[in-house]
Design brief:
globular; Quinoprot_gluc/sorb_DH_b-prop; 4% helix; Glc/Sorbosone_DH; mainly beta
Length: 218
């Protein structure tokens, strides 16, 4: 949903609906002019790529198989509940199972820019495009997995030419470790934080209430 808090052209007159919203000029019954994009199951964080025309990234937590990173466009339908990642779902028989789609079927909805399955993680934790002084993270969208605490990134460039999900290693005192080992707890409730003014990135493990500042990356 997208609104203008300073406007007044909504039904109740207490906020505005931007003219750029895809349904802002529609007058039919049941039209929700506040909608900007749809077809998400459980969007987890929005972030903007300031260096590339403020593209908007939205991660979407899957039902049972696929975790998504989407690039949102006005009026885009991202497929839920008949799509999970680049796969189809039989909503009548089994919401937990996915199946392969033909090229024609894939084109019916907006597919994710990047995705990973539940052999890799369990629930995507939305991140941010890093723009700070750590060269190894520059121009990367850094995100994680809520349950396992794994950290990932995808490379970001104007052409969006690489949709591969890469895993980041974690080290303490020069020794490779994991967020689970650092906290001593299996489920991390991991979140990513980013200070857009100071360009500093943080990893938050809600399970033990700790905030980890990323100070080195290689």
């Amino acid at each position: 949903m997208r609104i203008d808090p300073a406007g007044s052209n909504s039904k109740n007159g207490k906020y505005g609906i931007p003219a750029g919203n895809p349904f802002s000029q529609d007058t039919g019954d049941g039209v929700v002019r506040e909608i900007y994009a749809y077809g998400f199951r459980n969007p987890h964080r929005m972030a903007w790529d300031e260096a590339n025309d403020h593209r908007m990234f939205v991660t979407d937590i899957g039902e049972a198989n696929i975790e998504e990173l989407n690039i949102v466009v006005a009026g885009g339908d991202y497929g839920w509940p008949v799509r999970e990642g680049n796969y189809g779902i039989n909503t009548i028989k089994n919401l937990k199972a996915v199946y392969e789609l033909s090229t024609t079927d894939k084109a019916l909805y907006k597919g994710p820019f990047a995705q990973y399955d539940h052999e890799t993680g369990n629930a995507i934790s939305g991140g941010y495009v890093y723009e700070g002084n750590l060269a190894a993270l520059k121009d990367k969208y850094v995100f994680g997995d809520i349950v396992s605490g794994k950290l990932f990134f995808v490379n970001i460039n104007p052409q969006l030419s690489d949709s591969t999900v890469y895993q980041l290693s974690v080290a303490e005192n020069g020794k490779e470790t994991t967020m689970q080992e650092l906290t001593g707890i299996k489920r991390q409730h991991l979140r990513i934080g980013y200070d857009r003014v100071e360009k500093e990135m943080y990893v938050i493990t809600k399970v033990d209430g700790r905030i980890w500042k990323i100070v080195r990356a290689y």
